[in-house]
Amino acid sequence: MDNRRLYVWSAFVAAAILVFFAVGTLFDLKVSELLYMRDNMFGKIYEAIGKMPAFVISVFACFGLGENAAKNEKNNIKRYVFYILGYLVGIVTFIDLGELLFESTKIALALGAVLSLPLSGIVYAIIRRISAENLAALKKWALVVLFSVAVVGVLVFGLKTIWGRARYVDTQISDAEYSPWYKLVRVDGDSFPSGHAAFGGTLFLLLPLCGISEKFRGKEKTVFLIAVLFVAVVMLARIADGHHYLSDVSAGFGIAFVTECLVMRIAYGKRLENITFNTDNKLERLLDAVF
Question: What are 104-143's pLDDT values in tens digits?
């Protein structure tokens, strides 16, 4: 992998995030007025699928840890714990889709429980075909994924609670008032930052797989561009349906991107080819013992 090129790409993405955030800070309301399309299908579709990348790759991570446990443990308790965790994460994957289709949380959960079965089966079949060497490398990637997604989730939803910013759509259909992100008016809203943009941005966590699998080796640019395109569309959709401002989606994506860059740097060093689980590192010895 040409890491210098990857750093250049990352620098461009970081610069774009800062530019969009600055524009949003100055012109949030004008951008929303320009792009808002009430009850549009484009926004609803990406509301349903925008968070899926984070959950799907987390399902892979859980099953990867489960299969590692199966090969390295005398008992299978840890293995099945990870499998069950992967299935539960699979349920969450489809909740937004279920709520879009049926407008009921209970039915959405039931749909998630059903759809998580084939998803878990497909993931399990893929994991079972991975070689022992690549499976050991996958363990490290799985820990990176789960830690990154957890940190992003805590940061994003923690900030939502603190800020309490009203969504643009609420200013159009109720008596909620617009406020810039830097004013903590706490109106019991959850607009800032965007969870969909943040979780959509977890697609960048697929990059280390290009250093693990022969099938994906040399595909870093493709993976990077797919991640950028997906997040860009999610950001546009969330503004179009009035659920977020430009500063919201920029902040959400920025939180995810910075978190992932830091975690991957800590885990892999300067090169993502450093995929082995280095037991000379005290932190990794601790993780190895736990997972």
Answer: 899 999 999 999 999 999 999 989 888 777 787 788 889 9
Contact 200, 149 (CB under 8 A): no
Which residue reads 């910013």 in tokens? Answer: 165
pTM: 0.88
Joined tokens for residue 122: 């497909």
Query: Which residue is listed with tokens 């941005």?
Result: 201
**Average of per-residue pLDDT values in the chain:** 86
Cα separations in angstroms, 273 against 159, 206, 214: 34, 13, 12
Query: What is the tens place of the pLDDT at every residue in 32-45?
Result: 999 999 888 888 99
Please name which of 153, 135, 150 lies closest in space to residue 277, comparing C-alpha atoms. 135
Helix (H) and strand (E) counts for the chain? 12, 0
pLDDT in tens, 216-259: 777 788 888 999 999 999 999 999 999 999 999 999 999 999 99
Neighbours of 71 (CB within 10 A): 11
The type of residue at 109 is L
Residue 63 contacts residue 120 (beta carbons within 8 Å) = yes
Q: What are the extents of the domains in the chain?
A: 3-290
Burial of 55 (0-12, 13-18, 19+ CB in 10 A): buried
